[in-house]
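lol so apparently i was supposed to do this last week
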Amino acid sequence: MKKGSIYIHVPFCKTRCAYCSFFSSTNGMETKREYTDAVCLEAKERAIVDADGMEISSVYFGGGTPTQLPIENLERMMHALQANYRISEDAEVTFEANPDDITPTLIHQLRDLGANRISMGVQSFNDEVLSKISRRHTSRQAVKAVETTLQHGISNASIDLIYGLPGQEHRQWQQDLNMAFSLGISHLSSYALSIEEGTALFQQKKRGDIREASEDDFLLMYGLLQDTAEHAGFQQYEISNFALPGFHSRHNSGYWNGQPYIGLGPAAHSYDGLRTRRWNAADLYAYTRFWKSSEGNVKSPTPPPFDVEVLNDDELYDERVMTRLRTAQGMDLRELPDFRRDYLLHISQPYVKKRLLEIIDGHLRFTRNGIFLSDTIMADLMWDSEAPSSCT
Ligand code: SF4
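anyway here it is w/ iron/sulfur cluster bound
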């Protein structure tokens, strides 16, 4: 049976973090109720259209901050999924949470909803750094949140950390890593800071109030991350993701391996596992209004708040190379038609010679040195329809 996953985007946060460019709002209870109604309606309708014959092996509540919704709202959405989808008994069920929301009661409530994995946005264990990026929690609260999660029955705890944050020194980053791996987590996602337009950090950078980490800083910090994770017994199974054996995120692995996923909620993305991508508009008002009107069979005054893209053969090649190469096992060359495989082998040859890429058991993958240059190398491996015919 075809396997797939469901992602629910919960676009609410108590406050905005200085680096954040995710779609979320700080609106109140009435909006949350309408949003929940809309997700339940979308879940029902999409089950018929997009999940026929599919077994759901992973459910992921992300955001935003899912734990900013009252538990009753999360419960209603979970029930809508259970009523409309075939969710496997051993499905991975993840809730993203902010450390300052986590209490023993909340962990028990999430467990009762079926949660078996919590992913916490810790970002740093340094209070000064946390304050510079407007995180609401302190280092102490983050430590306590992990402890509470583990002590109250959810043994699969993941945290997110960011490196290259304003004012963060290499020594502090190493301390963050040491702290993270001392807590009993089973999974770590760690990303380099990217300062996006529209964020508070972007304004601070423009004013010259903060210094951006250099390329060398990022490389050094990434090296510390890889070394510390390895020392702690974690496997690097994707460019930014590390896990103890058996704790790879099933949800994220599905994305990288081309499995179908259904994204519910505003700004959520979906993929049918073949060629079709769909993304809901990042517009909470349009989203709730559309689903409300569809329930009453009232003709919606606006077009459905989503867009669809069907990938052509070249785009499909790019997509496969980009997602599979992110993973430790790399790109299975047998997935490609002969002429595409020949092209990829030809174009990757210089990198194989420099030991930045390697071919093991029919898989093309990055070496440890290659991962440092993954963005540049992947850009070079994209399909070029002007390439000489000898390559294609
Ligand atoms: S809690 Fe997460 S989604 Fe919300 S503002 Fe902060 S980084 Fe963004």
